[in-house]
Amino acid sequence: MQVARNHPRCGVCGTKLVKNGTTSAGRTRWRCKACGASTVRSRVDVTRRAQLDRFVGWLLNPSPQCSLGGTGRSFRASTAWCWNVEVPQPTVTGEVLPTVMLDGTYLQGWCLLIAFSGQHVLGWQWCDRESKPAWTALLERLPAPEMVVVDGGLGVAAALSECWPTTQVQRCYFHIFQTITRHLTMNPRLDAGKQLRVLTKALMKVEDLDQARAWIVEYLAWEAQWDQFLKHRSYPGTHKERPAWLGAHQHWWYTHRELRKCRALFRGLLHRNELFTWLTLGNVPLPRTTSPLEGGPNKAIKDLLRVHRGLPEDHARRGIEWLLNTWCQFPHDPWSLAQPHQWTPTKTTRRVIDEPDGPQPGTAFSWEDGNGIQKGWAGRWHT
């Protein structure tokens, strides 16, 4: 097969150019035998591609800018256009996955929602908070999996019931443990709280359905033992102030509110079958936490922002999108996303204001304003 050769033509007369040595920079000089014109051919696309590769490499593999060739200032000037390259969402293959992990992370006033399969990022969505519309925008782009692992936010629950109604839900065990710790602290004072914290720790060690049934029996026994205790009420009195959150027409409140919140949490999980879903689907236990997502893409995002601290908001978001692209199953080639208009600066035209000839009203020279040649002593008067 004949290989295509580089035969540039003269821009003046159209004759084929011949090589005529090199410049001081080592680039090939071309000369036209017909008209004698000399030129140096440049491949803008090759130059821009090299700049984009250097930019992405510096962004994802932090290193001093001066070590990438030239100075840091020259690197920033040559790669400034790379921030204009937009990173699209991952390619949706249509495969129905057994498990998808959903979680949101907050950074620089933004919230980033991520769908993760355990190995690859399936999609992301920028928003201000974890609301139902934000989660719906992400879930609508993906096929419904068999099971989804969530942290328990109200926004994701509403979006799941609308977009993925047939998908089973598993509540993340780590977030359950965090919620219980927030209500009871790490060292509960009451015996009921101590027992419930022990039950929560035992939940983290459940490995099969038999252990799951045993845990449910122990939890129901805890509820029966402390049912009357959790009904205790408190009333404002001489030595007990009225809580600020108490309504104007309320005259009492439950004494052990934090314990009741923990009981409501476990009751809801058992009622909706969101506590042991990972054991009931398939022959192999599925993930029960979002730890692969927290320790994978989320940690990489925090590390990226820590290394490149001080980035403007739009640059930080673009850098995170480049990072998430590397976590996709089929990452986009950076050069395939670049367009000529992104590296071509927009020409700005100077605005010319036509000013009429002659003085304008209110701008003419006036003796009444004190303008004119002043004569006399300009210093202090001496008396």
TrEMBL record:
Region (Disordered): 346-383
Keywords: DNA recombination, DNA-binding, Transposition
Pfam families: Transposase_mut
One term of GO molecular function: DNA binding
Claim: Cell inner membrane is one of the keywords in the record: no
GO BP terms in the entry: DNA transposition
Sequence similarity: Belongs to the transposase mutator family.
Reported function: Required for the transposition of the insertion element.
Protein name stated in the entry: IS1249 family transposase
